[in-house]
Amino acid sequence: MLLLNRVAIITGGSTGMGKGIALKFAEEGCNIAIADVNANEANKTINEVIAKGREGLFIKCDITNSSEVKNMVNEVINKFGKIDILVNNAGGIMGVKNNSVATILEDEWDNVVAVNLKGAFLCSKEVVPYMKEKRDGKIVNISSLGAVHPPAPKPHYHSAKAGILGLTYDMACELGASNIRVNAIMPGPIRTPFYDALSKSMTEEELEALFQNLGNSAPLKRMGTPEDIAGAALFLASELSSYVTGAVLPVSGGLPLQPNVR
C-alpha cells in the first residue's frame, strides 16, 4: 500500500474530486480527515472510508475562517497524532451569477477568491508546522486548467486558481529544506456534481450534448472522472514522487496542447 498508516486532510472531500481522492487514498492504507461544510455527504464518504478498513474523521469547517481551520487541524492532531498529507481541494463558484469583469460584484469576487485561494493558504498555514516538526509532508493543491487556459470568462475563479499555482511554487521553494513537497494538479473537464447540478436546468439530451462537446474538445475524447484526479493525487501524495516539488500536473485529457503550459 502506497499510503499505509498515513494521515491525510482533504478539504471539500465530501463529493466529486475530493471524494474520489479520499476513497483512493483509503484503498492505499491512508486514514482520512475530511474538512467540509456538507455534513450529510461528508459522513457518507467517511462511512465508505471506514468500510475500506481505514479510520475516518469529518470536521465541519469553513476553510475561509481562520479559527475554524485552526480548530479543524487541532481535531485531526488530537485523533491521529500527526498529519502527513494535505489536499487543498475545496473550491468552486458557489452559485455566483456574474462572470464578467464588468458585472462581478465585489462580494462575489471576495467569496470566490476566499474559497478557492485563501482557504488553501489558511489550511497550509496551520498544517505546515506539524510537517516541519517531523521533517516530512506532502501538500497537493487543486488548481484548474482555467488558470492558464480559460474556456470561458470567470475571472474571479480563474484568478484564484492561478493564485493556487503561485502559492504552490512559493511553498515548494520555502518548504523544500524541511522535506515538505508541494505540488499542484490542474484538472480539465471533469464530471463532478457541478455538472450534475446542471441537469436541473437542462434536458437530458442537452446535458449529454454538453458532456459530448466537453469530452470531444480533449484529445482523449472523453470527460475526466474524479478517479482520474485521484490517481494523480495518489502519485503526488506518495513516495513515488519523493523528488518532485513545485510541479504542476495537468489532468485534462490532453488539453491544452500549447507547449508552453506547465
Tell me about this structure.
By secondary structure, the chain is α/β, with parallel strands linked by helices. The chain folds into two domains: 7-190 and 226-247, Rossmann fold, CATH 3.40.50.720; 191-224, no CATH class. 45% of the residues lie in helices and 15% in strands. The protein has helices at 16-27, 39-51, 66-80, 106-134, 155-175, 193-196, 204-216, 226-237, and strands spanning 7-11, 31-36, 56-60, 85-88, 137-142, 180-187, 248-251. α1 packs parallel to α2 (39-51). The two termini are 30 Å apart.
Structure classification: alpha/beta
Total number of helices:
8
- Overall spatial form: globular
Oligomer: single chain
As a percent range, the share of strand residues is: 5-15%
Please state how the strands of the largest beta sheet are arranged side by side. Answer: 3-2-1-4-5-6-7
pLDDT under 50 segments (min length 5)? Answer: none
Number of domains: 2
Number of strand elements: 7
The overall pLDDT, averaged over residues, is 92
Please trace the helix and strand order, writing H or E for each element. Answer: EHEHEHEHEHEHHHE
CATH architecture verdict of the largest domain = 3-Layer(aba) Sandwich
Helical amount: 40-55%
- Under CATH, the topology of the largest domain is which? Rossmann fold
